[in-house]
Design brief:
393 residues; alpha/beta; Carbamate kinase; VC0802-like; 6-stranded antiparallel β-sheet; 17 strands; binds aspartic acid; binds magnesium ion
Length: 393
């Protein structure tokens, strides 16, 4: 919701759906760049804001938007109530700025629905057991919406964004990218966490766990978007459903590490203790009782990860350390891969033909990811989109 005009338009859309006989709960995010602006503001005060206070601040963005939308709906003459996360009884754990939802007390929601009110809930926020406000991580409104849909066993959870669905690749760099009609939770999970930034990964995880169907649609039109749903009754046309890329990657290598039990455990436990998410991990084969361990992380975590890695390097007597932030990850995703041999080979050939060097590889049942030079990411996505014929769905 960028401005007042937009809010009024959403109000109209909501009331139309209400009029058609639906019981509606709207989960809202903050307006426009509000959350980013709030973060910028803190940077003028301190570069180490306490996370509790960060949540206190960031949660205000959603409180503004729900009140305004409720006013707009009221002005159209419909019964409406706005509610914050704590008011809806969204209980989370204590991890400020990245809290996980533990429980939703549906009583208030059911009560308001029984009164035939349209409910507008502040996304992205909850409350821990000490009654402190928490937030769910960037893009967390998606997760609020899925959690509420799951708690109330809603028919569908529609998520409105500025794209009209999930595409075979980022349409900004691949104009031929096609909108997918349907995608499985697992595929979406890979795409969401691979930087296809349509949905917060956590929301997809939760949708999978509770069997919630998500309909990703556009705020700008009424087109059918993409259904993210359980895989069992989907027909697979293509082996690969999409190509994702993530430019926010950094890699760190510990070099000449003594090859004995406990080293990897020490390194990755220390990173986990700092809550740094590690993505790919590669350990080279041993030579002269030593090997190299490389891993990738989100670039935002690089400074903190380097501190940890330096400590571990010194403790275990590694020969050296290297890092790079000019890398990107490109991935192909598709539930059809399990049953089709040679998919990875096709990917590597396509990259080789573009003269792109692969620095790291990781695979799962439904994806293959490669770390390459950041500057070659776009070329790589184009080549992969072409070789798997994703422009012809
Ligand atoms: N306002 C929050 C953010 O910008 C939550 C969301 O957009 O879903 O990350
Ligand atoms: Mg969002």
């Amino acid at each position: 919701m960028a401005n007042a005009e937009r809010i009024k338009r959403i109000a109209k859309r909501v009331t139309e759906r209400h009029l058609a006989g639906n019981k509606i709960i709207v989960v809202l995010s903050a307006m426009g760049d509000t959350t980013d602006e709030l973060i910028k503001l803190t940077q003028q005060i301190t570069n180490r804001p306490p996370e509790r206070e960060m949540d206190m601040l960031l949660a205000t963005g959603e409180q503004v938007s729900i009140a305004l939308l409720a006013m707009a709906v009221d002005a159209l003459g419909y019964p409406v109530v706005s509610l914050t996360g704590p008011q809806v009884g969204i209980t989370t754990d204590d991890v400020h700025t990245k809290a996980k939802i533990l429980n939703i007390n549906e009583a208030r929601l059911r009560e308001e629905l029984a009164q035939n009110r349209i409910i507008i809930v502040a996304g992205f926020q909850g409350c821990n057991t000490h009654n402190d406000i928490t937030t769910l991580g960037r893009g967390g409104s998606d997760t609020t919406a899925v959690a509420i849909a799951a708690a109330l066993e809603a028919d569908v959870c529609e998520i409105y964004t500025d794209v009209d669905g999930v595409y075979t690749a980022d349409p900004r760099i691949i104009p031929e990218a096609q909108k997918l009609k349907i995608i499985s939770h697992d595929e979406m999970l890979e795409l969401a966490s691979l930087g296809a930034l349509v949905l917060q990964p956590r929301s997809v995880e939760m949708a999978k766990q509770y069997g919630v169907t998500i309909h990703v649609r556009s705020i700008f039109n009424n087109n059918e978007g993409t259904l993210v749903q359980e895989e069992k009754d989907m027909e697979k046309e293509k082996v690969v459903s999409g190509v994702a890329h993530d430019l926010k990657v950094a890699k760190i290598s510990l070099l000449d590490v003594p090859d004995r039990p406990g080293i990897a455990s020490k390194l990755f436990q220390s990173l986990a203790a700092e809550r740094i998410n590690v993505d790919m991990i590669i350990q080279s084969t041993m030579r002269n009782e030593r090997n190299d361990i490389s891993f990738t992380i989100c670039r935002d975590d690089l400074a903190r990860a380097l501190t940890v890695a330096e400590q571990v390097r010194d403790e275990v007597g590694a020969g050296g350390m290297a890092f790079g932030q000019d890398v990107a990850k490109v991935s192909i995703v598709g539930a059809g891969m399990i049953t089709n041999p040679g998919v990875a080979a096709t990917m590597f050939r396509a990259l080789a033909e573009e003269n792109i060097n692969i620095e790291m590889i990781s695979t799962s049942e439904i994806k293959v990811s490669c770390i390459i030079k950041a500057e070659e990411a776009v070329k790589a996505v184009q080549a992969l989109h072409r070789v798997f014929e994703l422009d012809r769905l």
